[in-house]
Amino acid sequence: MIDELDSVERRAWSAVLTLAMRVPGALDSRLQREFGVTHFEYRVLALLREAPEHRMRLSTLAARGHGSISRLSHVVSKLERVGWARRATAAAGRGVDAVLTESGLAKVVEVTPEYLVAVRTLVLDGLDEPQMVELAALGERLSRHLGDGQTGPEQ
Shortest CA distance to 69 belongs to which of 91, 95, 92, 46? Predict the structure, then answer.
């Protein structure tokens, strides 16, 4: 039998759920209204912008964007339709890369300033410097924990 969460565990879990649900939705609303892109689409464009030659293997892009291959494939298809990205044979042989186009580069450059304003307004402005450092450390620790495969009570 699994015990109920205690009051501290409930508060912590509620905080994680609230942030996980509200922040992406708020970012999506702002970015879609102003620029016609979702947060995940922006993330894909931004990752490609930072990548060497503005290209990255789809599997790597999915992992770095924290999305599934299926979700990424749908997003890359949309980005192709609007001319912001294209698929190409991976430079290293087998596999497929996503490649940022010139218009995709222009789009990510256009969106980035508002994205940064939104991140600050929605999250960072609510914290002082020590709290931001603490949040970063806690988020990194939890990400490592999830990356270690320790995702359930059977572990």
Answer: 95
Facing residues of 100 across strands? 85
Rg (CA), the chain: 18
Which pTM was predicted? Answer: 0.84
Residue type, 61: L
CB 45 within 8 A of CB 84: yes
- Sign of dihedral through CA atoms 57, 58, 59, 63? positive
Which residues, in sequence order, are bridge partners of residue 87? 98
Token representation of residue 12: 């912590």
- Over the stretch 91-124, which tens digit does the pLDDT of each residue have? 777 889 999 999 999 999 999 999 999 999 999 9
Query: CB of 72 within 8 A of CB of 62?
Result: yes
d(C-alpha 123, C-alpha 146), whole Å: 22
- Angle at Cα 43 formed by Cα 93 and Cα 23, nearest 5°? 150
